[in-house]
Amino acid sequence: MEDEDLYGDLYNESGEGDTLLTVKNTELKESLEKTQAVVTELTAKTTSLEEQVTILTEERTTLVRNISCLFKTAKEEISRKEDLISELQKKVEKEENRSKALQDEQHSLQESQLKAQAASAREIEVLTQQLHAAQKEVESARAKQ
Fold first, then answer.
1. What is the 3-state secondary structure (H, E, C) of the chain?
2. CA atoms of 7 and 86, how far apart (whole Å)
3. Compositional bias (Basic and acidic residues) spans (predicted)?
4. Contact in structure between 17 and 7 (CB atoms under 8 Å)
5. Are 35 and 41 in contact (CB under 8 A)?
6. What is the predicted pLDDT for the residue at 8?
7. What percent of the chain has pLDDT over 70?
8. Cα angle vertex 142, ends 138, 145, to 5°?
9. What residues contact 20, with CB distance under 8 A and at least 6 apart?
């Protein structure tokens, strides 16, 4: 087995390994600093987003509670309006029945008045005929005297 030089790739062709290591070390430190800055920035964004999520979750909870109350109130109002409509429909029906009964009664009274007028007219006719007959008798009795 050959002796392997584990650090052989750290030296450049001119043999300047220390300088190459220093340059690589500096590059890695700069890369690490940039990465840490990105991590810090992303951590801050994550924290901000988590706060926004918390706020939005609380707002959502409030909105859900409010919409539930509104829905319940609307259902109760609809029920109340339906009851009111039903009550008013019953009143209208009752008034229509009352109006029909009054119309029937009025019609019946009109028929009774017409019958009474017809009977009165017949009585007047009979009395008129009786009066004419009595007048003829009186005239005949005067003529005989």
1. CCCCCCCHHHCCCCCCHHHHHHHHHHHHHHHHHHHHHHHHHHHHHHHHHHHHHHHHHHHHHHHHHHHHHHHHHHHHHHHHHHHHHHHHHHHHHHHHHHHHHHHHHHHHHHHHHHHHHHHHHHHHHHHHHHHHHHHHHHHHHHHHC
2. 97
3. 91-108
4. yes
5. no
6. 56
7. 86
8. 145
9. 10, 11, 12
- Name 10's Cβ contacts closer than 8 Å, sequence gap at least 6: 17, 20, 21, 24
Residue 12 contacts residue 20 (beta carbons within 8 Å): yes
Distance CA 57, CA 46 (A): 16
d(CA 20, CA 33): 20
What's the sign of the alpha-carbon dihedral 28, 30, 32, 38?
negative
Checking if the pLDDT of 9 tops 70, the result is: no
Mean pLDDT of 90-104: 95
